[in-house]
UniProtKB/TrEMBL annotation:
NCBIfam families (alphabetical): 2a57 (TIGR00939)
A Pfam family it matches: Nucleoside_tran
Region of interest (Disordered), residue spans: 233-262
Compositionally biased tracts (Basic and acidic residues): 251-261
Alphabetical keyword list: Membrane, Transmembrane, Transmembrane helix, Transport
Its membrane topology: Multi-pass membrane protein
Organism whose genome encodes this protein: Chanos chanos (Milkfish)
Protein name: Equilibrative nucleoside transporter 2-like
Cellular component GO terms, alphabetical: basolateral plasma membrane
Amino acid sequence: MSTKEDAPRDRGYFVGIIFFILGLGTLLPWNFFMTASMYFNNRLNASEWRNGTVVGRKEYHFNNWMTFLSQLPLLVFTLLNSILYQRVSEKMRVGGSLVFILLLFILTAALVKVPMDTDCFFSVTMATIWFINSFGAVLQGSLFGLVGILPQRYNAVFMSGQGLAGTFAALAMLFAIASEADGETAALGYFITPCVGTLITLLCYVILPRLEFARFYFDKSKKQQTEAFSKLLSPEEEAEKQKNGAVNGHASRDGGGRGQEDGGATQAFLSLESADTSPKKSSVIEVLKKIWVMAFCVTFTFTVTLSVFPAVTVDVKTAYAGKWERYFISVCCFLFFNVMDWLGRTITSVVRWPPKESKLFIVLVVMRVIFIPLLMMCNVHPRTYLPVLFSNDIAFTIIMLLFSFTSGYCVCLSMSYAPQLVDPKDGETAGALMTFFLALGLSLGAALSFLLRAVV
């Protein structure tokens, strides 16, 4: 079998760059739709006219529905991933998902120039969000499995690409606003960007298996799977071989053949016994008992985060009129959130406090609930019930910086601590469980956002 020393060099770190782009591509759909909430709200919340008279304005609650229909597919397809993983090939799951995401982005870009009734536009947009995030969930799960074949550092590169997807989308929106183009042209340019990004991601995936470094590890993984399968069959095959030898007269009549058959059977039995005494994976319930604290932490963290971001935070208004109004949400809400969230995740490679054994960590996670009333009492409009306590832009910005940094920090610590609480043989099960609870937290937060936005 090939050893680590046999592995070729990753020339120019090209495979690392490709996995960074693949990580970026997995979260482009969610981030581009989320960052474009101003465009969708402006188009959906226009005043309704009848016989030349304004008759009112229909409220679609786009931010809430967008968040909910983006995160629910992640939960659903996380549950279905085990079935899809076995029955659908990797090329179909990754390549097919990227193709459909590209087509849906092209549709979204084309609709910018197509006049439509607001109800129809809302329905089409919601369907697009559902399907594009369903394919995104399949893509993300498949690529996590693919990057797991490579050395550990490539997993960090892949996740770094995911962490910067939101920043990329926020910068794209800022450039679209700064272009000084009319609303339709700016939106068209904005949605063409993820089309190009998804196409580049697809090309990177096509190139990946042609690179010597990646091909070495992919082939090695296939070889190990084949060898493992062969070892499972070898005891039965050996016993069958010995049995057939005796029947066909290859064994001698003086008992030597019988002894050989007995020896073969004994060897098969010992092989089976050896296989039975190998470490067995714990059940899902047993693993969950060990990691339930971290599962709660990642669920609670994302529930708090998604309950107010972006459904509540996107409706905060600046205290300063003028040109700054156009940039306020893109900078103070989306750009700052994504940069600080990425920084919170990254800093865990240097600082890991509190330790996994400390009850202080769960206290820190639960304390983040204070950000919900703080953000709801910022200058959110329209509002009905709660007073505005933080009307200043600086106050909102400071709250957002702390909110996003602690979100990334707590999530990353939870996800990294969980596998350390179980035996190495149960690491894969722990990772799958944590992925499920991560998706559960996102979905719960998205559902809770309807209530919290109504309370404001």
